[in-house]
Amino acid sequence: MARAGNIVNKSEADAGITLSGTVEAGASVTVSGFETADKAATVASDGTWSLTVSTADLKADAANELTAVQTDDAGNVSSAASFTVTTDFSVDTPVITAVSSDNIVGASEIAGSATVTLSGTGEAGAAVTVTGGAATKTDTVNSDGSWSVDLSSADLNADATTDFSVTQTDLVGNVSTAATVTVTTDLQAPAAPAINDVSTDNLVNAFENSGGFNLTGTGEADATVTVSGFVTGAKTATVGSGGTWSVAVAEGDLAPNADTALSATQADVAGNTSVAM
């Protein structure tokens, strides 16, 4: 076992590891402490000995306390030599945090050299490998368990989905199962929202103004509509699943006895903003 500390990973144990040492020429060696049974080593004429240990011989993810004794040609049995083989057979699947909070990326987020971050958590010191997109990306998990890679427009399919797979390899070489995430790009701005007429003719009388009314319209479901031009400042609304939106207009929002020019834009869930209506 070449790794410091006699630590064995799952693939190494599955392939079989070799324990070895030296004894008095002609002696026999017995190693005890396995999960299965004691094992007799093969001893060469120069006094070196070895034996193969498999996964079934060792406790998983634990310290295995082993002892070896030699018996010489005269039948004398030595005191025992003790050593520990530690198995580390598993590493958890890494955790992925949503890209841009909802795994939907808008045009402004990856315009030019801009990037979005694919991140998550894993085992400290592990090597994270991200596949999918234009190229494989790697990172090392920080001491606080965090990792991240940057994704540019080249890594993401335009106006489509891109599937990513993330694995981590721990410090002893165990490879986790993959965590997956699908990132969707929406690079097209929505059409301008529509504004319905107020009181059929866009004329507001004193009674309507003092009592307040709703300014309504239509847009893309879940988009955020921003109506600008009010005396008191812009107002926002979220477009419902049926494609309608409304904002409450109160007394003081409109210029008295004058025209108030209003305009509306909508930003879709990916952050793309329309032209103004």
> What is the H level of CATH, i.e. the homologous superfamily of the largest domain?
Immunoglobulins
Oligomer: single chain
- Which regions are unreliable across 5 or more consecutive residues at pLDDT < 50? none
Approximate strand percentage: 35-45%
- The radius of gyration computed from the alpha-carbon positions, rounded to a whole number of angstroms, is 35 Å
The description of the largest β-sheet is: 5 strands, mixed
Total number of strands:
22
Mean pLDDT: 94
Can you tell me the CATH topology of the largest domain? Immunoglobulin-like
Percentage of helical residues?
under 10%
Describe the structure in your own words:
This protein is mainly beta. The protein folds into 3 domains: 7-88, Immunoglobulins (Immunoglobulin-like, Sandwich), CATH 2.60.40; 95-186, Immunoglobulin-like, CATH 2.60.40; 194-267, Sandwich (Immunoglobulin-like), CATH 2.60.40. The chain is built from 2 helices and 22 strands. It has helices spanning 10-15, 206-211; strands at 7-9, 17-22, 28-32, 39-40, 42-43, 48-53, 63-71, 81-88, 95-97, 104-106, 116-121, 127-131, 137-140, 146-151, 161-169, 179-186, 194-195, 213-218, 224-228, 235-238, 244-249, 263-267. The strands form 6 sheets. Strands 1-8-7-3-4 form a 5-stranded mixed sheet. The protein is rod-shaped. The model has no long low-confidence stretch (mean pLDDT 94).
